[in-house]
Amino acid sequence: MALSPPGPQKTFLNACLKLCRRAAGASSMLPSLVVSALFILLTLVLAHAARRLIDNIIKDPFIRQLLQEFIAAAELCGCCFELIIVADNFGVSTYAVFLFLLTIWWSLNWGDATACPYTHMEDVVKGETDIRTAIIKSFFELSGGMLVFKYVQLLWSLEIAETHRDRAFSDCSTDLQVPVLYGAAIEGVATCLCRLASKTLSDLGPRFSTAIDSFIATSLVVAAFDYSGGYFNPVLATSLKYGCHGNTLIEHVVVYWMGASLGAIASVYLYRHPTVQKLLIGEEKEKEE
């Protein structure tokens, strides 16, 4: 995310940081990868607590669902900001291990929340919701994803690890390394494959389906990593890369919003096709339905 000059905010933060560092000792006390893991764990714990609090105090189901989407998107993007640090400093393999485990955690803890706008577009296509509801949910998700950077910026400003040095207020660059239409195609095809896999696993219900789904999604992310970044989620891409050097707003929308969304919508129609059903689910399951 592109940043404006910090001004007085950084002066205040620097004063706080000196106190924090003196209390914590040297900033290199812990290995950098451990610090990243602890920051991700802190984000998970805070989101889990916020989720439980919302469940307990908000009675209206729709309002509760909107707030759960906000929290899920903030949790997703907050963790993935730190995964950028992991990928940049410890390689894509380490990044993939973290992402695999996180995807399993999110699948088990988010409930009905998705933190992803195109899931609501799919519901519109299937006639399970209306456009107004889809837009409102997407707005809350985007808000959570964008606002969480202030939290991430505060953590990075502590510079507890060497890998966080000068990251809080630095500029960023796009992950798109191919022409815009190629990038949109990559995000679209990979998103479609992810959604087809999720739908198939949901219908078949095999043992360890959550882990299998996570493995497939992580593999596709790694495959696309050096081309489009492998976001497969418009909110995630916008939270992490909107305003970064290398792409215009239109290019960003085409690749990460239109590409991924069209891929998800295509998965709805493809999954309904008898040939695809037979290929993915098999004849017996098809007859049962």
Chain-averaged pLDDT: 90
Helix content percent band: over 70%
Please give the alpha-carbon distance between the first and last residues.
46 Å
Query: What is the makeup of the main sheet?
Result: none
Stretches where pLDDT falls below 50 for ≥5 residues? 22-29
Rg, please?
20 Å
Report the β-strand fraction as a percent range: under 5%
Based on DSSP secondary structure assignment, what is the total number of beta strands? 0
Secondary-structure class? mainly alpha
H-E string: HHHHHHHHHHHH
What general outline do the C-alpha atoms trace?
Answer: globular
Q: How many H/I helical runs? A: 12
Layout of secondary structure:
Layout (H helix, E strand, L loop, with lengths): L7 H17 L7 H26 L3 H30 L1 H18 L7 H9 L5 H27 L22 H25 L4 H16 L9 H8 L7 H24 L1 H7 L2 H6 L1
Helix pairs in contact: 2-3, 3-4, 3-6, 3-9, 4-8, 5-6, 5-10, 6-9, 7-8, 7-10, 9-10
Could you name the key traits of this structure?
mainly alpha, single chain, 12 helices, 289 residues, globular
Walk me through what this model shows.
This protein is an all-alpha fold and 289 residues long. It is 74% helix and 0% strand. It is globular. Mean pLDDT is 90; it is low at 22-29.
In short:
The chain is mostly helical and 289 residues long. Helix content is 74%, strand content 0%.
